[in-house]
Design a protein that fits this description.
Blueprint lengths: L1 H17 L20 E12 L2 E12 L3 E5 L6 H8 L7 E6 L6 H4 L2 E4 L11 H12 L6 H7 L15 H12 L6 E5 L7 H15 L4 E6 L2 H7 L2 E6 L2 E7 H6 L3 E5 L3 H10 L3 E7 L2 E6 L5 H10 L6 E5 L3 H10 L1
Parallel strand pairs: 3-7, 3-8, 5-6, 6-7
Antiparallel strand pairs: 1-2, 1-4, 8-9, 10-12, 10-13, 11-12
Helix pairs in contact: 6-7
């Protein structure tokens, strides 16, 4: 009976014995089962050539449901061309794409709202009347107009003529028109182009509010600040070629460094030698600078230091700005 009581403990000791030194909880990350995320837009080898100009060169990427996906790049990088092709406005030279797992069709188009050009409304008609006309063209339910106006922050200006709107208000009304069918996906081409800081902030806030409703948003922009503050994922394009893609967090954390310090430096250095996920480290005048393997962060270092009785007096994440990362990506 006594032996049976000690069996669980003996099993645990066997496991510990088989583990390489040092044994840390952070090195035993058990992956949690993940719920598969549906792919909304799947682009495979998409290309477009205009005579001798290769506007887009074999672009491949996937946009997942619920993400805010930014196409980032300078003017002429292929962003608008990409959006035009996936919206079936521009014919691809080669490659393919699919929406919701099927080829583009009338049904799939009804699940997408888009704004590709400058807002185009009747200047002397009110915001509400303009949306009524847009609803008739789209075959949308006119009962949704008031809620759309509230969503874009124009509910109190519904009876104001379009010509009296600021550029930011005009852009928000255009986004409202794209939302009339309550689409699952919203596609925006340079949504803050030409706006003043207040207009940019208003449109940015609107995009985040729409995304919070579970919508997927694909937007093209050459503004680094816009992508960094709004997007969850991004692709960097240059001269029609894909230079980098992934989550904004992953791209920003590439080559991320930590700066740590403690009252006594030697115990810290000794432990860093043994931690398997520490790629490299070096003493610095401000402390110790280190780089971690992918998938590890400052929490792992802090926890393992504390487990060995080391209390860090400083732990700073040194992260490159998106601008620095973008320039590095473009140079490479």
């Amino acid at each position: 009976m006594t032996d049976l009581l000690f069996l669980p403990l003996l099993n645990k000791l066997k496991i510990l014995y088989l583990l390489p030194w040092p044994f840390h909880r952070s090195t035993l990350k058990i992956p949690k089962p993940e719920t598969p995320v549906a792919t909304v837009l799947d682009i495979n080898g998409l290309s477009k050539r205009y005579g001798s100009i290769q506007a887009l060169d074999a672009l491949t990427l996937q946009v997942e449901e619920g993400s805010i996906y930014g196409l980032l790049g300078p003017n002429g990088s292929g962003k608008t061309t990409t959006l035009g092709m996936v919206l079936d406005v521009i014919r691809p030279s080669s490659g393919s794409f699919s929406w919701f797992g099927t080829s583009v069709s009338k049904t799939s188009k009804q699940r997408i709202g888009a704004l590709l050009e400058t807002p185009n409304f009747y200047p002397y008609l009110t915001a509400k009347r303009n949306l009524q006309l847009a609803a008739q063209i789209k075959g949308a339910d006119p009962a949704s107009i008031n809620s759309v106006l509230d969503l874009v922050g124009l509910g109190t200006r519904s009876n104001t003529a379009f010509k009296g709107f600021s550029l930011g208000m005009k852009q928000r009304l255009a986004i409202g028109a794209a939302m009339l069918n309550d689409p699952e996906v919203l596609v925006l081409d340079e949504p803050t182009n030409g706006l003043d800081p207040q207009g940019i902030a208003e449109v940015r806030d609107l995009i985040l509010r729409i995304a919070s409703q579970g919508k997927t948003i694909v937007l093209a922009s050459h503004l680094l600040d816009e992508v960094e503050k709004v997007c969850t994922h991004m692709a960097v394009l240059q001269s029609g070629k894909l230079k980098a893609s992934g989550s904004v967090g992953d791209i920003l954390s590439a080559n991320e460094q930590l700066l740590i310090s403690a009252p006594e430096q030697q115990p810290v250095l000794d432990l860093l030698e043994r931690l398997p996920y520490v790629v490299q480290f070096r003493p610095d005048k401000e402390g110790i600078v280190l780089t971690l393997s992918e998938g590890y962060n400052s929490q792992d270092i802090n926890r393992d230091m504390f487990a060995q009785g080391i209390v860090l007096s400083q732990l700073i994440v040194r992260r490159k700005s998106l601008e620095a990362q973008f320039m590095e990506i473009i140079k490479n």
